[in-house]
Amino acid sequence: MSNNNNNNNNNSKEAGHETPKNPVSTSAWGKIEASKAAMRTSNPIRMIVDRMTVKPNPEKELIALSIGDPTIFGNLRTAENVTKAICDAVNTYAYNGYPHSCGYPAARRLVAQRYQTPTSPLGEQDVILTSGCSGALEICLTALANEGDNILLPTPGFSLYQTICESKGIEC
Predict the structure, then answer these.
(1) What pLDDT is stored for residue 64 in this prediction?
(2) What's the distance, CA 12 to chain centroid?
(3) Where are any strands of DSSP class E within 44-155?
(4) Would you tell me the crossing angle of helices 133-144 and 160-168 to the nearest 10 degrees?
(5) CA nearest to 168, candidates 141, 137, 135
(6) Which residues of the chain have pLDDT under 50?
(7) Which of 82, 124, 145, 158 could connect to 149 by a Cys-Cys bridge, CB 3.0–4.6 Å?
(8) Burial of 66 from C-beta contacts in 10 A (0-12 / 13-18 / 19+)
(9) Contact at 8 Å (CB) between 47 and 54?
(10) DSSP 8-state assignment for residue 17
């Protein structure tokens, strides 16, 4: 990444982490201004990946490491008993709609039972299940910090912490 000090946008924090330059979009509905959160949001990983220009070596097989989902390329298969349990659950039609926003009560209860200790009792009301790590981080940071707050982030760490904080106006 190179330093781009020629950026005319004063909101840019560092090279490769620029605020979008055109906050207004024209559509069939007219001009639509981007929200403050959208204007503050950027993803450092996307900035790097989108700018990469790497010529593949024709003598070597590509090993893709970009997304972090080990199942996407078929190299981590789901166990057959898990696949069967999911299919059985789907076929009951009991789980084909939206669950409670914090997760199914029975699943939350089981998580609470598994992780409680004698000094830290837990109930299903203490557990929130999310659809992946990104959703969990968004919920946690939104619940714990307000716009203008300052938090410490681990370094090196997952860049999504910074992305979420910036979109919420949280300093990091």
Answers:
(1) 66
(2) 22
(3) none
(4) 40
(5) 141
(6) 1-20
(7) 145
(8) exposed
(9) no
(10) B
